[in-house]
Amino acid sequence: MKTVSPLLPVGLLAKSAGVNVETIRFYQRKGLLPEPGKPPGGIRRYDRSALARLRFIKAAQRLGFSLEEVGDLLKLGDGTNCREAREQAERKLADVRGKIAELSRIEGVLADLVERCCDARGRIRCPLIAALQKG
Fold it and tell me: Sorting pLDDT into bands at 50, 70 and 90, what band is 121?
């Protein structure tokens, strides 16, 4: 005998997914999460596929995918379009590597300025403030 998964009200769905109700509403407005019908005089209830979809969205966001990119990944659906998913992941990886390079450059500049601040004595102007004023 097949057991039917219980349907979840939006509050329980949100709690189960680790998001708030407004996040669910936002995803619905963006077309990332379908909105179930509302029975007359009742409340909307979500099946377990909605929870799986929310978890997918959050997992993709943790990897740095924007909501637009998440939408593109969701369109790939069942995972049979691995080439397209790989291409999206390759683009995201290149983007992340670029950000890492930029952050590494920023780290070097800040480390140098912090070191120069520590060495500054007397009436010498603060190297950090001077560098920021130069632009």
Answer: low
Q: What is the pTM of this model?
A: 0.77
Spatial neighbors of 63 by CB under 8 A, at least 6 apart, are: 92
Each domain of the chain, given as residue ranges in start order, spans: 7-63, 76-135
In angstroms, the CA 45 to CA 42 distance is 9
For residue 20, what are the contacts with CB-CB under 8 A and spacing of at least 6?
14
User: 62 pLDDT exceeds 60?
Assistant: yes
7-63 is classed CATH 1.10.357.10? no
Which residues does residue 46 pair with via DSSP β-bridges, in sequence order? 8
Query: Is pLDDT above 60 for 4?
Result: no
Which residues does residue 8 pair with via DSSP β-bridges, in sequence order?
46
**Alpha helices in 1-135, H assignment, sequence order:** 10-17, 21-29, 48-62, 67-75, 82-119, 127-134
